[in-house]
Amino acid sequence: MTEPVVESQLDVGEMNTESLEQATMIKPHCNYTIRSETLDGPMVRMARIGEQIVHRWDCDS
Fold first, then answer.
1. In this structure, are residues 29 and 1 in contact, taking their beta carbons and an 8 Å threshold?
2. Is 32 helix (H, G, I), strand (E, B) or coil?
3. Is the entire prediction scored with pTM above 0.90?
């Protein structure tokens, strides 16, 4: 049994290009903490399985 051959015509046109000026990006300064139960809960260093924790990122910008 031979497999059928599928053929298709595909035309690809040129893409327009545009030069971009190099921009200076300011990287944000962020802090990561793990909190107990809510975003504003106390910070935790360790937790037990089953305890609810929240991962929180705080960034300057």
1. no
2. strand
3. no
